[in-house]
Amino acid sequence: MEFLTTFTPELTITSPGRINLIGEHTDYNMGYVLPTAIEKKIIFKFQKNGSDSACNVYSETYDTGFQLDLNTIARSEVEWENYILGVLNEISLRTDKVRGFDCVLQSDLPTGSGLSSSAALECGLAFGLNELFDLGLSNLEMVQLSQTAEHTYVGTQCGIMDQFASVMSKSGHVILLDCESLEYDYIPIDLHPYRIILLNTKVSHNLASSEYNTRRRECEEGVKIIQRKHPKIKSLRDVTEEMLDASKPEMDSTVFNRCSFIVAENKRVLEMAKALREKDLISAGQLLYAAHHGISKLYEVSCAESDFLVEFSKDNPDVLGARQTGGGFGGCTLNIVHEDEVDTFITAATKAYKKEFDISLEAFEVKPSGGTSFF
Ligand code: GAF
């Protein structure tokens, strides 16, 4: 792209991916989540280009880019462009202060791996433009407009967790976020002598075209049925096991399973927060395994590859717990592994996975890190 020859960035932003320790699919059910940003990130370099409305965006990592005009923003056929366009559209609904800019991206955050490269893209752009053009948006506004951009331009009816984690995370902590009130608490995470190891199945999912929106609808259907007996409940977050059981005869078994997972998963998040505060690592590990069982058997957003890796970890006494993290259908499993056995575990898992699926596993340690910031 022509602008690259004279590109002189005046602002650099780093926007992280995230893991979710526990609390999957609870965010759009107004429940609890426990995510944190990780060191893997997208770096954004920006310059104003003097134009009123002409903008250039280029990804160095994927050697691809596009031009756009702020006066004619519309959805694109190219999926990743919609994350950018969606955010620009949302910003334009709030302010007319954005002018022509050039942006270059570099990423070490694998896409489609359940680590939320999409939120990193949305939030990094929002954060950068907020600074570059002095838009005056608060962190929460950037989180919310990025989430809306994903609904309107990408088509995934996602919850708020990924964008919230990308912007609001704090190094060494997980965020206990109440997705209804948006109140949150930073919980220090000290797993010593254990580490968080991600195993990337390399099986990719596409949330928009996958079952994500269907899961959301199934949960809403469950809520409507429970409301017949309990008109005051607003979401699955307000539902107890007893309430759910009472409505079971009126529910399709799939809808019951989905609701049952969410009700239990919300409880697990609060139990995990307690386990972390008390440094009860054994309970923390067991909660991960219980969560994965629900993800796989009740919510049915796992896959053979993720299930294999979680089962594999169960045979290893140096792993306290494991589960698939993120939206589902592949991506990464999160494993709590003793620091002395990390290499042995990764070697054994890589060998077994290669034998089973003929795929070369990617494995790396992650540490809870800070949110979107200046570089
Ligand atoms: C995806 C979504 F974007 C999040 O909002 C969340 O629902 C997650 O899947 C599942 O917990 O990452």
TrEMBL record:
Superkingdom of this protein's organism: Bacteria
Coiled coil location: none
GO biological process, one term: galactose metabolic process
Pfam families: GalKase_gal_bdg, GHMP_kinases_C, GHMP_kinases_N
SUPFAM superfamilies with a match to the protein in the record: GHMP Kinase, C-terminal domain, Ribosomal protein S5 domain 2-like
GO terms, molecular function: ATP binding; galactokinase activity; metal ion binding
Enzyme class: transferase
EC number: 2.7.1.6
UniProt KW Cytoplasm keyword: yes
Residue ranges of domain Galactokinase N-terminal in the record: 5-44
Domain GHMP kinase C-terminal: residue ranges: 272-354
Record keywords, A-Z: ATP-binding, Carbohydrate metabolism, Cytoplasm, Galactose metabolism, Kinase, Magnesium, Metal-binding, Nucleotide-binding, Transferase
Record carries keyword Nucleotide-binding: yes
Ranges for domain GHMP kinase N-terminal: 82-169
GO-annotated cellular components: cytosol
Family of this protein: Belongs to the GHMP kinase family. GalK subfamily.
Listed name of the protein: Galactokinase
Species this chain originates from: Pricia antarctica
